[in-house]
Design a protein that fits this description.
Strand content: under 5%
Helix content: 40-55%
Structural class: mainly alpha
Distance between the termini: 68 Å
Number of strands: 5
Radius of gyration: 22 Å
Order of helices and strands: HEEEHHHHHHHHEEHHH
Largest sheet: 3 strands, antiparallel
Length: 309
Amino acid sequence: MALTTISTATITTLLISLLFLPKFHSSKLIIENDHSSIAKADVNLLEFPLNLEFFEAEFFLYGSLGHGLDKVAPNLTKGGPTPIGAKKAKLDRFTQDIIKQFAFQEVGHLRAIQELVKGFPRPLLDLSKASFAKVVDGAFGRPLSPPFDPYANGLNFLLASYLIPYVGLTGYVGTIPKLQSPASRRLVAGLLGVESGQDAIIRAYLYEHAMEKVTPYGITVAEFTNRFSELRNKLGHAGYKDEGLVVPTAKGAEGKIKGNVLSGDENSVAFDRTAEEILRIVYGSGSEHKPGGFYPKGANGHIARSHLH
C-alpha cells in the first residue's frame, strides 16, 4: 500500500513537471509569447507577409486620409522609412469610406502579426504615381498617355488596388500548408479571410463597371484587369495563377461562364503563390534577386533578404 501511494505521488509530480518543460516539435524549438506558441520554422513565414501588409496599409491610409502609419500607428513601422510619393486620392464619398475601412483593417493586420512574431522595420515603398504608371505601362506593353495616375479618381484608385490584396491573398494560401503551429495557422487563416473579402469587394465594384472605358484611354475596366493579371502571371514565372474580370468561357467557373468576379482554378479554388513568386511580381523585375518597382531597396525579413546576397 505504501509503495502504491509513493508511486502515485511520484507519477503525479512527474506529470506536473512535464507541463513546465520547454516544448519541442520535431527537434525544433517552440517560441513562447504572451498569447500562444509558434514553431521556430513558422517565424520567417509569418514575417514575410508584413512586406505586403505595409504596402496595403500605407496605400489605403494615404489614399483615404492623406497620411500613413507615421501618424496613425508609428510604433508599427519600427523606424522604417516613410513611403515615397503616396498622397490622398480624389475619391467619392462611398469609395473613400471603403478604402478607409481597408486601411484600418491593414493596421490591425500589422499589429496581429507583430504580436506573434518580432517583425522588422517597414521597407522603403515607392507608392508614387510614376511607380504605378510604370506597372501599367508594363501591363500594356507601351506607355499610356497621359501616364496612369492612381490618385486621380476613385476608379483609378480601385484599379490600382486590384494590384494589391490579391497578391497577398495567394501568398497566404501558399503559406498555410507550410505552417506547423495551430496559432500560426489560425492567424494566417484569419488574415486570408479579410484579404479575400477586400479583393472580392474591389473586384465586384470593378466588375459592375467592367465594360466602361477608363478615361482618357478608351480601354475598358475589364481589359485593364486582364492586362494586370497577365503581367502578374508573366512576372511570377509559375504558370497561370491570375485572372481578370472577364475570361474565355473555358476559363470561367465550370467552363460555363465568362464573368469572373472571383478568381480561382478549374475547381474555383484559390490559387497559391510562394514568397519568391510574390517578390518577382512586386519588384516588377520577374526576379526575387532584383529589387525595384514598389520596393526600390527590396523587401525586408529573412526570406526576402536571403535572395539579395
